[in-house]
Amino acid sequence: MAERQRAHRQVLARVALFAIGATSGVQLANFTVTGLSVVCLLLAPGFLLMMHRGIDLLPAVLAVAGSLSFVASCAVNGVTVLWPNAIAFPAFLLYLVGLTVLTVRAVDATATVLAGIATGTMAFFLTQGIELTRTGSIPDLWKYGIAHAVTILVLFGMTTARIQPLLQSAVLVALGLASLGLNFRSHALVCLLAGAIVFTRHMLGSRIGRGWQFLGVAVFGLVFAQVMPIAARAGLFGAALQQKTLEQDATNLPLLLAGRTEPPLNITAILERPFLGWGSAFNLTPDVYARAQHLAIRMGFDPTFPFELYWRLPPSDYSATHSILLGSWVEGGILAVLLPLWLLVACVGVVWNSTSFGRWSPLVVTLALQGIWDLLYAPWTYNMIPEFVCITLFFCAVRVRRPMVAVRDSS
Fold first, then answer.
1. CA torsion 322→328→333→334, rounded to 10°?
2. N or C: which end of the chain has fewer CB within 10 A?
3. Transmembrane residues, as ranges (predicted)?
């Protein structure tokens, strides 16, 4: 009887965690403030009652430093401190404090909250969405809205149902191929790499060192980067991807830029004001744009490339830099880049120690790989901040234990 009551309480606790995560579907202020923010604010006092190690407090300190750096940059450059990219840092701090109290840094609890956040993301995009997802097009809804959330929910459901990692890796490959057909290459790459890592770690275990395993996965990624454009140009994944691939081929973009046009602009802006930044990317001067174009051409861009079309966005668009890592430096200054850099290290650490998460490994690896891509090549998007907090909690959880020792799942 006591065992049954304990199991019943665990189920109720999981449901409550999931429901709390799902409150993130209520939008209160762009991508930074949601219903989950309110819950985290109410839980914040509990953070002071918990024990913390240095590794636990470091991201909070970096979030504070980034917030102060943005305040100074906004003041110097005449930008409102309510600029969404500036609010992202205090929002991260609030989510970190609240979710730490909620999950007590337990892996299974964090995974459950993450699934709730993914549900909130789907609810937001299916009921409200953004301009890019309100076109009535399924590929647009998938690419700009729900692809990542669907992937998280599928992996969470399979893990909860105790589905074997090999089958989860096959599902990741299937999701990757589906995203190729829906013109979402970055998500396809994340799913295929995650599937390859899960498959390799499950099949080889400790028989081959992690370094060699990841080298093999890296080779797979490079082969994919070469073969995928050939297949796309042949129309094997649909007309939309074929057209986009042909358009990007014409620009001669280096592979390192991953199809993004903004890095030359970001690098030029950083070199111009490396310490305090610009407050907002819309403060960049014509001279900066001109020097960025010269740099882009030296990097391999065609001189006839329409830079103005890609770089000059409406003043209400906060995604001009299209990189959390470089964009934070451009707008907030050098202190603002420290948190994204730490998050990048956390993502890599989570992937490297993936076996430490036991049955949650496929979910955690996929989340961390998506985090790496987003930090390098994406702007802040809806519910991305609490997801990075979940990565932080996963990273801190595994740092408590020796590498290669599975994290205990209390479920």
1. -110
2. N
3. 35-51, 58-80, 86-104, 111-130, 142-159, 171-199, 211-232, 332-352, 380-398
| Highest-confidence segment of 42-56, 209-223, 396-410 | 42-56
**Residue 258 Ramachandran class (φ > 0 left, ψ -120 to 50 alpha, else beta):** left
In 194-312, the DSSP E strands lie at none
- For residues 379 and 54, what is the distance between their CA atoms, to the nearest angstrom? 29
Question: Is the pTM of the predicted complex or chain greater than 0.85?
Answer: yes
∠ CA 74-391-375, rounded to 5°:
45
Helix, coil or strand: residue 28: strand
Task: Identify whether the C-beta of residue 292 lies closer than 8 Å to the C-beta of residue 273.
Answer: no
Is pLDDT larger for residue 59 or for residue 183?
59
Q: Please name which of 292, 296, 293, 299 lies closest in space to residue 271, comparing C-alpha atoms.
A: 292
DSSP state of 79: -
| Residue type at 237 in one-letter notation | F
The owner of tokens 């979940």 is: 390
Question: Angle, nearest 10°, between helix axes 147-160 and 361-377?
Answer: 160
Closest CA to 403 of 242, 173, 209, 176: 209
Coil, helix or strand for 313? coil
- For position 256, what pLDDT does the model report? 57
User: Phi/psi of residue 21, each to 5°?
Assistant: -60, -35
**Do residues 37 and 303 lie in contact, with contact meaning Cβ atoms separated by under 8 Å?**
no
pLDDT of residue 209: 73
Position with higher pLDDT, 203 vs 41: 41
Q: What Å distances lie between residue 267 and 53, 237, 289, 343, CA to CA?
A: 35, 34, 11, 20
On the 0-12 / 13-18 / 19+ scale of CB atoms within 10 A, 254 is exposed
d(CA 182, CA 142): 8
pLDDT digits (tens, 9 = 90+) for 113-164: 999 999 999 999 999 999 889 998 999 999 999 999 999 999 999 999 999 9
Count Cβ atoms within 10 A of the Cβ of residue 337 and give its class: 0-12 exposed, 13-18 middle, 19 or more buried.
buried
Asked if 144 and 133 touch (Cβ cutoff 8 Å), the reply is yes
Query: What gap in Å lies between CA 390 and CA 103, rounded to an integer?
Result: 10
Residue type, 141: L
Q: What are phi and psi of 321, to 5 degrees?
A: -80, -25
Task: Give the CA distances from residue 274 to residues 74, 77, 216, in Å, rounded to whole numbers and listed in that order.
Answer: 14, 14, 37
Q: Residue 143 in contact with residue 135, Cβ under 8 Å?
A: no
Domain ranges for the chain, please list them.
2-147+312-399
Residue 77 CA from chain centroid, whole number: 28
